[in-house]
């Protein structure tokens, strides 16, 4: 990963080093509490990107598997029946 949020790469590298040695959630929580504000910002940006990527993959998988088809059909039926409004 690269440094995110305009933070120096060294802040991100330092945060990664501290977190890479962690094994349990409790250890990770404790390590996060020890991060400097710059390291925490870098970690927060990285984690937000990781979480967004996971969400995107899940939505893509759900679409590909047809899990959202019923919702799409319902929305289209509402649109055709005039039950939708513009904002």
Describe this structure in words.
This protein is mainly α and 87 residues long. It has one domain. The chain is built from four helices and no strands.
Keywords:
single chain, 71% helix, elongated, 87 residues
Number-wise, the strands total: 0
Beta fraction: under 5%
Shape: elongated
> From the helix content, strand content and strand pairing, which structural class follows?
mainly alpha
- What kind of sheet is the major sheet? none
Number of helices: 4
**Are there runs of 5+ residues with pLDDT below 50, and where?**
none
From the N-terminal CA to the C-terminal CA, the straight-line distance is 40 Å
Task: Look at the structure and give the mean pLDDT.
Answer: 86
Give me the Rg, rounded.
20 Å
Helix content: over 70%
Give the SSE string: HHHH
The domain count comes to 1
List the helices and strands and how they pair.
Blueprint: H1 9-20, H2 25-34, H3 37-64, H4 69-80
Summarize the structure.
The chain has 87 residues and is mainly alpha-helical. Helices cover 71% and strands 0% of the residues.
């Amino acid at each position: 990963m690269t440094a995110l949020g305009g933070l120096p790469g060294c802040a991100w590298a330092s945060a990664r080093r501290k977190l890479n040695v962690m094994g349990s959630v409790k250890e990770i929580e404790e390590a996060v509490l020890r991060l400097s504000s710059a390291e925490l910002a870098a970690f927060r940006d990285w984690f937000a990107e990781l979480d967004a990527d996971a969400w995107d993959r899940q939505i893509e998988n759900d679409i590909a598997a047809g899990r959202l088809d019923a919702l799409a059909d319902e929305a289209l039926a509402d649109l055709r029946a005039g039950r939708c409004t513009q904002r």
